Amino acid sequence: MASSKLQAIWNHPAGPKTIFFWGPTFKWGLSIANIADFSKPPETLSYPQQLAIAITGIIWSRYSTIITPKNLNLFGNSLAMSATGIYQLSRKIRLELSYMFGTRLASRSSRLALAQCRNSLLLLSRQKQPQVPNLYSQYHSLLDLQYKVVPVQVSLLHNFNLCGSAIQRFGISSSASPQPNDKDATQSGNEQGSATENDAAAAAVKTSTDAAADDEKDVSESESDSECDLSKDELVKLVIEKEEQLKTKQEELRKIQDKALRACAEMQNSMDRTKREAENMKKFAVQVFKKYGLQRYDPVNEEFDPHRHNAVFQVPDPSKPPNTVAVVLKAGYMLHDRVIRPAEVGVTQSAEN
Q: For 62-84, what is each residue's pLDDT tens digit?
């Protein structure tokens, strides 16, 4: 059973006895070499080389399935070439994308670091300034514990002024009347206390508003000064970094353009070389065919012979007799006395017809 299978493989039209087996077998060396390049850094890879390997593998893997006989060895080899070429291209593309995103992240991180440094300096400048209570912000934000000390100060000031006014009024009333009425003293004390309380509250509100305006002005000035001081140094650093990145990108662009020009020149040379080889092979084939009796004939002005000529059209020509070959579209070929390909001709017809 095994010997019959080996015999079938040995006698296969694409078996080891034919070039269709050994050609793809030696072609496996390209795939093995490309696999060995997996350990190389991606920046050393070449776009034209890997593109050629991947496209060649895809084309020949399709071609190996439609030819007769089907060549599975060629199919496996071409599939391996396309897979390794695509993998190497993906490595190269991932490297360039990482470079691109890395530069973006670096610039973004530098901007974030600049913003954090500026915010930290602003916080330090605010902490060094004296804290001034703001009665207006206390009215709109009662949850801020920093400004809850203002009502207590106002109430203490009110009690102190109330006591002083009461003592002063008591002294004045005692000089005018040695025995004052308790009810009158109480009423006058209440009136004087309410007036003093209103004056103290108004003064406190005015003082807090002025202090808050001064605080905001000082903070804005410190922010602008620190921002200007930071922007100078950081601007110089960013300009230097951008210039270095621009030089690097220009050098990479120059290398890519040089590679593209070389690839185009190589492709043009390959096309010219293939054209010359085809022409030489054609000439050689014609010489070999002549050696073995193959002849080319041009039946112009000959009488039409349906065995040697293939009439494509008729042309009226009174200068020539009817059924004469007037135009030859394709020359014919004969091997000794046998017609290999009849000549395609145009035949004359009489003027009356």
A: 888 888 778 888 888 899 999 99
Q: What is the 3-state secondary structure (H, E, C) of 293-336?
A: CEEEECCCCCECCCCCEEEEEEEECCCCCCCEEEEEEECEEEEC
- Token pair for residue 5? 């299978």
Check residue 256 and give its pLDDT: 93
Phi, then psi, of 344 in degrees rounded to 5:
-90, 120
| Average pLDDT rounded to a whole number, residues 295-322 | 89
CB 248 within 8 A of CB 102: no
Task: Give CA torsion, residues 123, 126, 128, 133, to 10 deg.
Answer: -140
SS3 content of the chain, % helix, strand, coil (to 5): 75, 10, 15
Which amino acid is it at 306?
P
Q: How far apart (Å, rounded) are the C-alpha atoms in residues 174 and 152?
A: 33
Residue 50 CB: number of other CB atoms within 10 A?
A: 21
Task: Check if the beta carbon of residue 320 is closer than 8 Å to that of residue 326.
Answer: yes
